[in-house]
Amino acid sequence: MRADNQQRKPGAGRSEGTRRRTTIHDVAQLAGVSRQTVSRAVNDKGEIDPATKERVLEAVRTLNYRPSRFARGMVSKGGVTTGLVIPDLRNPFFPEVAAGVLEAAEQRGWQVVVWDSRADEDREREALDVLSHQADAVVGYFKNDDAVLARLLGGVPLVLLERGPQQTRFGAVGIDVAAGLRQGMAHLVDAGHRRIGLLDGDGLSGPGPRRTAFLREARRHGLPVDESWIVLCSEHSVAGGEAGAARLLAGQPGITAVVGFNDLIAVGAMRAARSAGRRVPDDLAVLGFDGLALGELVEPALTTLHIDKRRLGMLAVEQVARLRAGEEPLGGADAWVIPELVVRASA
Predict the structure, then answer these.
(1) What is the SS3 assignment for the chain?
(2) Which CATH number fits domain 1-67: 3.40.50.720, 3.30.930.10, 3.30.70.1350, 1.10.260.40?
(3) pLDDT (tens digit, 9 = 90+) per residue, 28-38?
């Protein structure tokens, strides 16, 4: 089937500089077959009738589709390839998640391709464009909305990390932030703290789940907390936490406890406290949110809300397996990881 000049091709209407790469989904749509049929035709598998194969190859030529050599190699081995998109491999939280994905994938005999998006939406889109050629499914962290993700993946199964099942049309594994902060805030209040601040790391596009849960718990305990007790840290790092805590303590010197968006930010808060002449936890209690091994090494050891990061990754692979089998993804409590309070010396 040859497309004439009147037929609109996928990607038509964009300039050459912005046209996205043709995907296997585009070829399948033009040829009127499934992605699996396109894969069989491109990889010269025998289980496809000659007329259908020629129709697919004509669509490949028409759209100038070029499957990657990597993808052809994986298909020829009969393996399943999962793409894993991580926002920052320098942050020790994400390699632990990746370890869970790799462990679960290895148990199934799958390969994993890892992409560091650096929390950049353009790099996310680039990753999806590439992985739509290379991967049978994708797992990861994404800032782009569902409509963009669906358009770029073209039907490739997707599981989103740290989004609840009710927050996306795709498969998902969420972290129950509200349940974690309920434990953490109760611990601080029980220790006598009434003036508690938050070092947030998610708020450029509106209040994130940690801020929402923090304010809810503050109201529930009757604490005198408002938005002025919250500082947004531009970097999810020790340096970002130190700078954010310095601003928070300067603006609200009466604060006696602080909650960090993650453990790195919380460690930065302890450094800021020392620079300000405050002792931790006597003058300022500090609570993290991650459960990194780093928290046991600092002095004083960090009290934190521990997230089972390997389980997060393994649940994501389970979701992929269900989607590939045509089953409904896990939902309800099975699709959430609940943080657990680990009490050490900082709070």
Answers:
(1) CCCCCCCCCCCCCCCCCCCCCCCHHHHHHHHCCCHHHHHHHHCCCCCCCHHHHHHHHHHHHHHCCCCCHHHHHHHHCCCCEEEEEECCCCCCHHHHHHHHHHHHHHHCCCEEEEEECCCCHHHHHHHHHHHHHHCCEEEECCCCCHHHHHHHHCCCCEEEECCCHHHCCCEEEEECHHHHHHHHHHHHHHCCCCCEEEEECCCCCCCCHHHHHHHHHHHHCCCCCCHHHEEECCCCCHHHHHHHHHHHHHHCCCCCEEEECCHHHHHHHHHHHHHCCCCCCCCCEEEEEECCCHHHHCCCCCEEEECCHHHHHHHHHHHHHHHHCCCCCCCHHHHEECCEEECCCCC
(2) 1.10.260.40
(3) 889 998 877 88
